[in-house]
Amino acid sequence: MLYVVRLLSIVFLLLVIQSTWLAGIRVFGIAPDLFLGPVFVVSLQRGRAWGIWFAFALGLLLDLEQPTRLGISSLAYILAVLALDRGARALDRTSPVVLLVLFGVCALLSEVIRGLWLGGGDAVHTLAILGRVSIPSALYTTVVVPAASWGLARLTGTKTWVLHAS
Amino acid sequence: MSLPGGTAPRLRAWIGPAVAILASLTLLVLPESARRAAATALEHSVFAPFRLAVGWGEGSLALRLKLHGLLAEETEAHLEQDRVRETQQENERLRRLLGFERRTMEELVPGAVVIRDRGRLGDVLTVEVPPGTVVPNGAAAVVPEGLIGWATEQREQRVRVACLTNRDVTLSVLDQRTRDEGILGWVPPAIMHLELHDIPMRSEWEEGDRVITSGLGTVFPRGLLVGWVQGSEIDQTGRGKKVFVRPAASPAQTEELFFLIQRPDGSWIAQDGDAPAEAAEDASDLYPIDPAMESENGAGTSFEDPGVLPVP
To answer: Among B67, B100, B133, which residue terminates a domain?
Structure first.
């Protein structure tokens, strides 16, 4: 129960950050996807089933901002969780480098799915979105979220970084 | 029918992900109206408490951030104001030292455009000026780009400005390069297009020449930028030509403007007070003027204040 409350608090904080401070760290219109962090952590700590339903609910919550895209964030996060599940089984999930790579793959996958949806079947448009938005966003997310996680761990004095899951 | 050992648990493990993926895909393939309806339903049911909490948090934080930003802007504006004041004082000190006298006697009165009207007779702006300000009829209205028109009527804080693209406005202008003069006016229904009529054939108004006010008459001071020559053609009589001028300032893009209000002649720039003679004496006490320089310059070197008017 405490875990759920903590999780909801983190999501609440991230939503507030997204609508207030996130604009300040945009680079050429590209913003990091902060919500991939909680999805990643939940999937690693609680397993695939938890991760998938958490990803589904969080995706729906995010898509409420733009109802025309309802479902796309859920799908992107769910597929990212599935990829993470496959990767975490095969690799050493305690290694920070492995986690970083897995996180990068998840970020790329979720952004590419969003990009494909936004492209709407037009190949040129889709390629442009992937090149201009999706890939830079994934890279930015891969840098910002782990860095924030590491910083948070240092601030709170925990031994391992927040993304770490034993 | 039974499944081989281990297959059933594996399939069961995929039920959750499959349902979640199917649900997401279903939402994606719904018509847009249904998606909107589903989002509204979710927002007001499952996610209602969360959305309310986040909205409150966002609201208070956003307000604080905005307040912080506004305070920073205010501080920056104060600093900028101080810098401008400092520069102004330094300029005035130097002018006193040199014994310069103001040639342009206009005082600037700011105004904000509140109504734009494009009537049959041309463009008219209604401008709001600070309370207690009196803008005499005929006061020139300028913007950073140049002359925009003149004041024709004031009712309390509202001043009506007839723009250059108005039939009521005609003005004496000259070509800054050749000093050829002419009377400029607007001929409807031209848009951003003024005309000079009865221009002698031999006068040289070339495309791109700057057109400025000539200072003749009592309305507009000399040297205000009016526009640029666009071209010319021989008029119907064949004895003269018409010159077309593109105005520098556009009424459609004007948000704020300044009225140039005449001040009494002989006022010294060194003092904003109402006693120019005293100001001059004070200035000469503080900064003795070299007699040789004074005699060379006469009563003082005349100049046009570049900060006041859009001097060509």
So the answer is: B100
B42 within a domain of the structure (yes/no): yes
Task: Write out residues in chain B with pLDDT < 50, as ranges.
Answer: 266-312
Assigned domain for B203 exists:
yes
Is the previous residue joined to B189 through a cis bond, with omega within 30 degrees of 0?
A: yes
ipTM at complex level: 0.81
**What CATH code is carried by the domain that includes residue B163?**
2.40.10.350
| Sequence letter at residue B2 | S
Dihedral, CA atoms, A86, A90, A95, A98, nearest 10 degrees? -60
Q: What is the pTM of this model?
A: 0.47
B139 and B70 in a single domain? The answer is: no
A30 touches chain B (CB under 8 A): no
As for how many domains chain B has, the answer is 2
DSSP state of B251: G
| Pairwise CA distance, residues A67 & B34, whole Å | 10
- For residue A42, what are its two tokens? 């939940």
- C-beta atoms of B23 and A56 within 8 A: yes
CB < 8 Å to A11, chain B: 50
pLDDT of residue A13: 82
Residues in B touching A38 (Cβ below 8 Å):
none
